Amino acid sequence: MADWEIKKTLGQCYETGRELAVGEEYYAALVELESGQLERRDYSVDCWERDKPVVYCFWKTKMPDSQQKKKLFIDDEMLMAFFERLSEETEQEKVNFRFVLTLVLMRKRKLKYESSDTKDGAEIWTLRVTGGDERVQVVNPHLAENEIEQLSSQMGQILQVDFDG
Length: 165
Prior knowledge:
Structural class: alpha+beta
Number of helices: 4
Number of strands: 6
Largest sheet: 3 strands, antiparallel
Radius of gyration: 17 Å
């Protein structure tokens, strides 16, 4: 499994290099590189609105105060949107990432496991989206516990979320 080189916020606008002030709103985005890797880039509101960069997904947030405890900067709807965005991906790293996101969403009770089946040698989970009748399918890549922990940590850095808290 390849490592994702996705870092937490650098506290500056990707385009201008300007430092983002504590409490300042900005756009955090994941950009897909030619290599297929995802890279996090932060944009000031001015740059975002002026240049409309092409990104894989994004969310609007505020620059945290490094002295305060981390808070959830994205809501469950954004996590579900990111989950859906990854649904058609076939690259192994993204399949793995989606699976770990599935585990997070199950823990948050946004997805409920219903069954599993084997298709073309892959274990496919069927889950129900809570609050409705929608069903989604997720490939279980059979990750080792340390791989799940590593991906959870990387996901937390990308999304500025502490999934353990």
